[in-house]
Amino acid sequence: MVRKILKTAWIARRALLQHKLRSFLSVLGVVCGVMAVLSMICIGEGARRKIVNQIEQLGTRNIFVKAGELTDTQRHTALANLSTGLTLADKDRIVSGCTAVSSVAALKEIAATVWNVSRELSPEILAVTANYSGLQNFRLARGRFINSLDVERKNLVCVLGSGVAAAFGAAGQIGCDIRIENSLYTIVGVISRFDRNDDATTAIPVRNFNDMIFIPMGALPAAPPSKAPDLTAGHGDLSELVVQVSDSDAVMAAAAIIERILQVRHNNIKDYQLLVPQELLNQARRTQRTFNVVLGAIAGISLLVGGIGIMNIMLATVSERTREIGIRRAVGATRPDIIVQFLAESVILTFSGGLIGVVSGIGAVAVIAAIAEWQTAVTFWAAGLPLAMSLLVGLFFGLYPAWQAAHMDPVAALRHE
Prior knowledge:
Elements: H1 2-17, H2 20-26, H3 28-58, E1 62-67, H4 72-80, H5 88-97, E2 101-110, E3 114-116, E4 119-121, E5 124-128, H6 132-135, E6 140-143, H7 148-153, E7 157-160, H8 162-168, E8 177-180, E9 183-191, E10 212-216, E11 240-245, H9 251-265, E12 272-275, H10 277-320, H11 322-330, H12 335-372, H13 380-406, H14 410-415
Parallel strand pairs: 5-10, 7-9
Antiparallel strand pairs: 1-11, 1-12, 2-5, 2-11, 3-4, 3-8, 6-9, 7-10, 8-9
């Protein structure tokens, strides 16, 4: 059986090589279709992985409550309705009002100047509660993070991001003091480098923790007499709450409960924003499924065009080889033998075009990634799917010409000039 298949393939190859240019031109449609499909799949998969990675960095069990950015008019309206913005009271109410919540961390963005002898730096400063590190999955390069005792006693200690520690140099070691406004903070820890995408486009931007300084909640720096800046950011005492749910399956239900708790506490004033990474992840997956359907439609159209070209050339081949078909039938070839012969030629054409298209597509993806600086991902199914489709195209569009060749009248075929 294997020997017969190999012999048929050899005969089909020899027949195709008799018209090399025509055979090559006939598969160009398949080549272009496979190359386009593979390129789009790889670019789409790269974009999907990038988005999923950004969202998963936030934690799929986390819910973010961010202080709203209000205009002066909106701020007055909120105060008139007895809504003072995001506060620690919201944190306590969420913990007591939603049983699915396992932990809530609070943070406050601080606008202050950091000094290092004669050199001024401008890292972002966050006042956080002790559990913020666990909810953000920080890894410490050395030292420790802020603990509950630091928050309770308002100790003037700090933890540096890896970028800030590197900028301070020798002065960024544990035990050294850094000056924030008119207060000296003792360094107790340094966070390991945090990998992030600088061009994050999700609804919840991933913070660049490498360029941050963390201090205990409530341990605000003292401003100099000549400068009295507003050290708080946004409306209310806090900039953000990070809520962690005990079970990922309960995130959406917990988000609805938290939304209702905040509505009641803020008297229906929308001076906050509720953001759920898991919802964004589900939305990204739904978008990817839609994108896959669109890609499938484009793939079908592209390969349909290539398949029509294959059918056209196979019909011309059958017409040219009428006498050959008659001779083969006269010496004992059956109709299935004729069908297999012409199907083999059609499949070899499309499979060869598919291989060329896959190689060309991988090259195109590499060029696009280098020029446009897009994230791409070449996967097994991205290469295997268009290749398998090219085989199916060869079988489908080669079937009618093969059937027509097999059903020729042998006597009429022998008389054909």
